[in-house]
Amino acid sequence: MRISTRKHRKYAKKSKREAGFILTEMLVALSLFLVFCAFFPLALKITTEGRIISNSLRSLEWDVFLHQLKKEVHMAKSVRVTDQKLNLTIDEENIQYELYGNKIRRRVNGTGHEVCLQEVDIVKFEAIQNGVKIAVTDSLQNKRNAAVYSYLLLTGASPP
Known about the structure:
33% of the residues lie in helices and 35% in strands. By secondary structure, the chain is α+β, with helices and mostly antiparallel strands.
């Protein structure tokens, strides 16, 4: 049996650069942590204000939808409400507004898919004399109503 008398043992060799964290590394890590902590309330505020922006966008979306609907009803030769679908006849074209999933979509001659309103739960179209009445309830349970009249004497619109 041979006994080794070597005193050179190589377990783990420490380099002078790997002595541990130095003060500047700790200060950099602490400053990064404080920067993240400083921006956290700002990020939280932005995410909560998104709901307010969303409500104002819904209001704007309703206004644009109503403006487009008024323009088309004013030009329509006839207005019909069947199966909760609004059908307008303009220049030999049939324009249809209907609830599709949670959206109100506009179709021309049975083709196309133009989204007019989003996040809609309930829509009710009602034919009135020389126009149409619309009631919409959105996903936040906000209710909006409007009546749109035509300047022409319409066919297909029932008197009240």
